[in-house]
Amino acid sequence: MEPDSPPPPATRPVVALVEDEPDLAEMATTYLTRDGFEVRPAADTRTGLRLVEAGGIDLVVLDLGLPDGNGLDLLRGLRARENPVPVIVVTGRGEEADRVVGLELGADDYLVKPYSQRELAARVRAVLRRSRPAPAAATAIRVGGLVVDTSAREVRRAGTPIALTPREYGLVEFLAAAPGQTFSREQLLDHVWGSSSRWQAATTVDEHVYRIRRKLVAAGVTEPRITTVRGFGYRLDS
Ligand code: CA
Fold first, then answer.
1. 117 and 165 inside one domain
2. Most CB atoms within 10 A, among 123, 129, 177, 184?
3. pLDDT at 171 over 80
4. Contacts for 140 with CB less than 8 Å, ≥ 6 apart
5. Rounded to the nearest whole angstrom, what is the distance from the C-alpha of residue 90 to the centroid of ligand 1?
6. pLDDT over 80 at 2, yes or no
7. Distance from the CA of 58 to the center of ligand 1, in angstroms?
8. Partners of 154 in the β-ladder
9. Measured in angstroms, how far is the CA atom of residue 55 from the centroid of ligand 1?
10. Is the separation of the CB atoms in 179 and 237 below 8 Å?
11. In a domain, 229, yes or no
12. Over the Cα atoms of the chain, what is R_g?
């Protein structure tokens, strides 16, 4: 792959470019496309809104001076949506007031014309980075009355966090990922501690389980519970 060939289509962020000056729109489209974005152009507020409503837009670059109205009205409409799409407003020189209103309306950033294409691309990247939600991987495991929130690394019962040490949390998360499955102490040492019974006493696991049980009971958790499989290990039952 050549160094500046764009990434494959599926990973290209989609930018709606609402700009009525054809030269500027073309220049920005060329530059952003080369920089790895897919650009969908619109030359007025109506087309811009339709474009966003059609879905699949990751960010809007919005010129405020448009032929069929003020871009601020479009911005208002975009901010009122259930899933607001990030917006960079673009103003002409001397449109200070519009820029301030734009930011007050929740624009994520602004550019003043004339701007360099490089700066536009850098702002687009920065805003996308800031507005990206956390990875869509599963972030919560529900088991019995517990929620194991793997992104916050927190265990909650009825919305209230249970104070666990990082290792205790790790043990609960590991067991909660496979309820009903029994793991030996050695497996738990291996997966949760990254250690082995050669380096760490298997009773470390017992001590942690003992402490977790006490904390769960204190928090009023009846299910799930950690079941002892005698002479072998533990599992989480709900
Ligand atoms: Ca304009």
1. no
2. 123
3. yes
4. 147, 148, 149, 150, 151
5. 9
6. no
7. 22
8. 149
9. 24
10. yes
11. yes
12. 27
pLDDT digits (tens, 9 = 90+) for 92-143: 877 888 888 888 888 999 999 999 999 999 999 999 988 876 555 568 899 9
Residues with CB under 5 A from ligand 1 (ion): 20, 63, 65
Tell me the per-residue pLDDT of 79-96, one tens digit each, with 9 for 90 and over.
Answer: 888 788 999 999 987 788
Provide the number of structural domains found in the chain: 2
Residue 2 lies in a domain: no
Structural domain ending residue among the three candidates 111, 131, 151: 131
Q: Could you give the angle at which helices 203-218 and 166-176 cross, rounded to 10 degrees?
A: 90
Average pLDDT, the chain: 89
Alpha helix segments (H runs only) across the chain: 22-34, 45-53, 71-79, 96-104, 117-131, 166-176, 185-188, 203-218
- 65 CA → ligand 1 middle, Å: 4
CA nearest neighbour of 40 among 60, 20, 66, 67 = 60
Percent of the chain with pLDDT over 70: 93
If you measure from the C-alpha of residue 130 to the centroid of ligand 1, how many angstroms do you get, rounded to a whole number?
Answer: 27
Residues 6+ apart with CB under 8 A from 205: 171, 185, 188, 189, 233, 234
1 pLDDT tier (thresholds 50, 70, 90): very low
